[in-house]
Amino acid sequence: MSDQKNMLIAIAISLAILLGFQFFYEFPKLEKERERQAQIAAQDKSQLPTPSNQGDDASVQAPGGGVSAPGVKSEVLTAQKRAEALKSAPRVGIESPTLVGSISLVGARLDDLVLKQYGQTVEVNSERIHLLHPSEVPKSYFAEFGWVGGSDSPNLPGPSTIWSSDGKQLKPGQPVTLSWDNGAGLKFERTYSLDEGYMVTVTQKVTNTGKTSTALFPYGLIARSGTPDTLGFYILHEGPLGVFDGTLREYDYDDVQETRKIEVTSNGGWIGITDKYWLAALVPDQAENFTYRFVHSIENKDDRYQVDYIGQSSSLAAGASIEITNRLFAGAKEVKLLDAYSEKFGIQNFDLAVDFGWFYFLTKPFFYAISWLNSYLGNFGLAILAFTVLVKAVFYPLANKSYRSMAKMRDLTPKLMTLREQYGDDKMRLNQEMMAIYKKEKVNPASGCLPILLQIPVFFALYKVLFVNIEMRHAPFYGWIKDLSVADPTSIFNAFGLIPWTPPDFLMIGIWPILMGLTMWLQQRLNPQPTDPVQAKVFMFLPLFFTFLLGTFPAGLVIYWTWNNLLSIAQQRLIMYRMGVK
Prior knowledge:
By secondary structure, this protein is an alpha+beta fold. It has helices at residues 2-42, 82-87, 253-259, 335-345, 360-377, 380-394, 396-423, 427-441, 449-468, 511-526, 533-549, 555-579, and strands spanning 59-61, 68-70, 91-95, 99-104, 109-119, 128-132, 141-149, 164-165, 176-181, 186-194, 199-208, 214-225, 239-244, 247-250, 261-267, 270-274, 278-283, 289-299, 302-311, 314-316, 321-332. It has two domains: 49-157 and 212-317 and 329-351, Beta-galactosidase, Chain A, domain 5, CATH 2.70.98.90; 365-579, no CATH class. The chain contains twelve helices and 21 strands. The longest helix is centred in the N-terminal third of the chain and has 41 residues, at 2-42.
C-alpha cells in the first residue's frame, strides 16, 4: 500500500510540474508571440530612422552621434522569383572550388552565394546549399560594406548606387574592383578578393579630388529577413553572435526581438549570424576599435535582423585618399578552416563560431582526435567507434572501481531485500541494519558514483562534438545508414519499410535505437537492482523511454551510445566474473 501511495504521489508531482510549466512558461510565451505577430501584421515599415545624407535609401541609425549605416530595404517576392531577381541587376560572377554566386552592381552587395561542396540531401545531384539571397527575395540574406558620414558629408554610395566593374569574374587569385564617382569630388573603389575557402577580403578606397576635406566612417553589415527555423536545442546556439575583446556573446533571435538593439564596442573582434553548420560573419581590421550592433526591425510584415559594425572616423583631406580592408566569412563552419583563418588574420576566437559549449577544453581536442581517426579509417562512423574505445581505455581504472562497487552491491542485493521485508515498516531500523551490512562487507554504496560523475563531462563533450560537427553531416556508415547526422530512417512500426506507411516522427523507432535500448536493458540487468519496488519499476521503463527519446536523434549519436553500452557490458561482465558474482 505504501509503494502504491508513493507512486501516486510521484505521478501527481510530475503532472503538477508539467501543468505548471505549460501555465507559467508556455502559455505566456505563446501569448507574447501572438502579440508580436499582430504587430507585424499591422506594420509595414521599418521603425528605424532614415538619415538625410543617404538619399532615398532606407538606413538604420548607427552608433556614434549623428552617424548612420545603411540598412535593409527589400520587396517581398516569392521564392520562385530568385532567378528573376538575380537577372534584374547587373552582376559580377563568383567562382571558386567552394563557392559560386555573384555580386550585385546595384549597391555592390554580396547577395548570391551557393556552397558547392554541400547539398541539401545525401543524393549526389541534390541542390546545393544557398547561403546568401538577394534583398528582393523572401528570406533574403546578404552582406554589404561602405562608408557613412556626418550631416554635412557629400553624397555617398548606398543600396541603390550602380557601380562600374572592371569586367572580371571574381576567382581565387583574380580580384575584382568596382568603382563609383559621386560627381562631387569623391571617387570610390571597392576591391573584392577571394581565397579557395570561404573568406572574401574587401578593400575600400576613397580618393578626394575636391577642394574640401570630409570625415568618413567605414561600416559593414549582414542583413537577414525572416526568422529562420532552428532546431531549438538548448545545447546548440543558432542566431546572432560575436566575439568582442576576446569574449563570445550569443543572442537568440527572440533576444534581439525583445531588445530591438544591442550595442557593444571592441578592439578587433567579429560579428555574424550562425546556423547549425553555416556562418556569415563580418571580420573588420583586428587592430582598430569598432562599435558593433545587433538590430531587429519589422519591414514588409516580416522580421528583419541585422548585425553590423562601424569604425572610427577617418579624415579625408583634399587631394588625399584613405583605404581600409575588412573581411566577410560566408560558408561552412569547418573547424580546421576557422582555426587557419584565426591564425592567418589574427581573428579573436574565430573557432567559437562552432558551438563547442562549456567543455570547450575537452570538446575541441575530441574533434581533432575523431577527425584524425577518420583520416586513417576512412569512415566517420568507424572513427566514432574507435574514439569510444580510446575513451574507455583512459577511464578503465575509474570504471573498474565503479563496476567493482556495483558487483559487490549486486551480491548484497538478496540480503538487502530480506532486510526490507523484515523492517519495511521501521525506516530507521532498516537504515541501521543496512549500514551494518555495508560496514561488515566493507562496501560503500556511493563509491561507484564518483567515477561515473567524473566521466559525465567527457561523455557530454563527446556528444557535443558528434552533434555540432559538420564533418558528420551526410557522412555514411554501413547498411541503411546513409547520413550519420540524421535519425535512423527505419521504423519498427512499418516493419522496417515492408509496410507502405510512413509513421509520425515520434514512432520512427529504427533498428539502431532498438539496439541501443536492448544494450541499455542488458547493462541494467548487470547492475544491482533497487530495493525499492517503485524505483525498480521506474528503472525497468528507462530503456524503453530512452529508445523512444533517441529515436529522433542523429544516427551517429545512437551508434556511439550503443557501442558505449556494449563496451560497458563487456567490462562489467568481466569484473563480475573475476569477483565470482553470478
